Amino acid sequence: MGKKHLYIFLSGIITLILCSCGVPEGHVRLSGKISQVKEADCFIYSTDESFSRVDTIHISGGKFETDIPLKKPIVMTLLLPSFSQVSFIAEPDKEITFKASAEKLAEIEIHGSEMNDQLTEFRLKNLQKSDREKRLAAVQFINDNIKSLTAIAVFREYFLENKDVNPIQAQELIEKLQNAQGKNHAVKTMVPLAEARIAGSEGMTIPEFAGETLDGNIVSKDNFAGKPALFYFTASWSNHFVSTLKTIRNLERMPDRNFNILVIALDYDTRTLQQHVERDSIVSPVLCDQMAFDSPNVRNFGITYVPGNILIGSNGRIVERDVDDAKLPDRLKQLK
Q1: Confidence (pTM)
Q2: In a domain, 205, yes or no
Q3: Is residue 186 a contact partner of residue 48, using CB atoms and an 8 Å limit?
Q4: Using CA atoms, how far apart are residues 216 and 285, in angstroms rounded to an integer?
Q5: Mind listing the pLDDT tens digit for each residue in 272-324?
Q6: Rounded to an integer, what distance in angstroms lies between the CA atom of residue 265 and that of residue 289?
Q7: Which residue from 95, 106, 100 is spatially nearest to 157, judged by alpha carbons?
């Protein structure tokens, strides 16, 4: 083989290798490194109609990489091993990179596109601020980028998926997003979630709900009328699950207990859930329709995270949300 032919041959091989290492056309590549994590799973999901599922990403040796078919840029959420959540923009034909430490997941850096660079800069800039200051900064960011997917990502992360939501602020922002991006499916799906979150604020009446418990009984709103109640939202896949069941078991055994308890589990399968409930001798009804965050019994309460809890008065109105486990006994004693 002559030098010229050898050069052409080697050039072709190099080109083939480079192409095979690139992002496949019509896909987004998600690759990352999370230090101090050897083996774990994280999850990605989106409310966009083009990706209406939950995918598992396996972390091995602190690294992960996956290619996902994608036709257009969409807002996605990454559920990290600690079950903290972060929103990002998935874009076709691009590699989105993630870098974080297991001890400082809040400082995760996401790059690979201009929009993700912008989101990362915003998060890191506001990392040390108070929750109130973060929300004010988020409001300003959304207003400044109202026509961008980054505004949707920030709204999801700082309002829709945040426990301490300001109903008035959330309502104003969702209306602005509707006006600016009303045709975007992500905005359309956020509207009922935001409305449910607002409707589930303190002082509001709990929504209608019904379903079958693990022991085969049907429970509904009527079963909890006339008496204070604790609704606890959890899931067997959450790393808080064991401590949550311990809290529920201790509350069940409180002397002179004057409140009911309902556990609403966001599981896709009841087998593991059933094992834990039986092992921990949980006697309160456990409602699980195996639809996780897509369950009407979850969406109607505006739940976009676990664990979460709602304290309800005997009049059926929400008294308080997301009380710390250590404070629950005292709060529940005060319910009327």
Answers
A1: 0.69
A2: no
A3: yes
A4: 10
A5: 999 999 999 999 999 999 988 888 899 888 887 789 999 999 999 999 999 99
A6: 8
A7: 106
Q: What's the pLDDT score for residue 40?
A: 87
Same domain, 76 and 145: no
pLDDT value of residue 193: 76
Alpha helices (runs of H) in the chain, residue ranges in sequence order: 3-21, 114-125, 131-144, 149-155, 167-181, 185-199, 241-252, 270-279, 296-299, 328-334
Q: Verify that 159 and 236 share a domain, yes or no.
A: no
Would 4 be classed as within a structural domain?
no
Does a structural domain hold residue 29? yes
CB 66 within 8 A of CB 136: no
- β-partners of residue 321 are 310
Beta-bridged to residue 78, according to DSSP, are 44, 86
Cβ burial, residue 264 (10 Å; 0-12/13-18/19+):
buried
Q: Note whether 214 and 176 are same-domain residues.
A: no
* Residue 284 near residue 261, CB atoms below 8 Å: yes
End-to-end CA distance of the chain: 91
Interatomic CA distance for residues 312 and 213, integer angstroms: 20
Say whether both 190 and 285 belong to one domain.
Answer: no
Q: What is the CATH number of the domain that holds 66?
A: 2.60.40.1120
Which is nearest to 296 in space by CA: 165, 193, 174, 203? 193
Alpha-carbon distance of 242 to 145, in angstroms, equals: 41
Tokens of 244: 């949550």
Residue stretches of the chain with pLDDT short of 70: 1-21, 82-83, 163-164
**Does a structural domain hold residue 7?**
no
**In terms of residue numbers, what domain contains 163?**
126-199
**Boundary of a domain, candidates 81, 115, 149:** 115
Q: Provide the residue type at 19 as one letter.
A: C
Q: Are residues 239 and 216 in the same domain?
A: yes
Total domains in the chain come to: 3
Same domain for 145 and 243?
no
Last residue of a domain, one of 46, 81, 115: 115
DSSP assignment string, 190-255:
HHHHHHHHHHTSTTSBPPP-EEEBTTS-EEEGGGGTTS-EEEEEE-TTSTTHHHHHHHHHHHHT-T
Tokens, residue 109: 């850096």
